[in-house]
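My main concern about presentation is that the manuscript never shows what a single data entry looks like. An entry of this sort, consisting of the sequence and the corresponding backbone structure tokens, reads as follows:
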Amino acid sequence: MAAPRSLNIDVERLMRGDQAKKDVNSPSEKKPKLERFPFSRSELVAFFCVFLVFVTGLYCIYLTMPSSVYDKLKLPRSISDLRTLKDHLITYAEDYPAQFILGYCSTYIFMQTFMIPGTIFMSLLAGALFGVIRGLFLVVFNATAGACSCYFLSKLIGRPLVIWLWPEKLRFFQAEIAKRREKLLNYMLFLRVTPTLPNLFINLASPIVDVPFHVFFSATLIGLLPAAYITVRAGLALGDLKSVKDLYDFKTLFVLFLIGSLIILPTVLKRKRTYE
């Protein structure tokens, strides 16, 4: 396994710029601003090529839909939007299940890969249209596939962006990963089950701090199950749901952290025995 690469040089290089010419005691030196765009031209070309492939595939899939369905498609941004979308799609999903699932999966993975907000509405939609079992399978499959796609995209061109956006959080994540190399799967499962770190950050930062793909994949596939179950089950009662915030109340967060604590407990006990 490759040793973790140091991020300090890259972070300092991005943050230095013109600030190195200023006085060390100046306020701007104490709080450097990241003004340089993080991507090189070749990285931008690679990003847009991947993006174009996804968009072309989605467009070809949507062309197979009846115009009555296609004209009313839009990404939901609220629970009311989601109810309207469900009413438009329910007949199409029953009459053309294979085409609908292909379009649903492609859209979900596209959104997850390119960090487009709204996948939680897609998860609720799966529960509303397919029930708990099939909906849970769809959500976990798509969330895992999208996260893996995001992982490889970040491995290709994401390093400058993550360092540019979250330099301190990335240093913290790298230090935590380095401390837990022996039980890395447990730690990654803990992060996936609990909302300790955003899933977006985990997807983008994992290849940069050398989290092996098999660990990332396993932790994502298993760790997303509890939250996915909660979301899909809530989709069954879409009419009673007022806001996305209702999904994660104190009781739900307590259960997720309890599960996460049980997952990471073997690591804590092993470390305690080592110190003794």
Summary: DSSP finds 13 helices and no strands in the chain. Residues 162 and 189 are 21 Å apart (CA to CA). The mean pLDDT is 81. The first helix runs from residue 8 to 16.
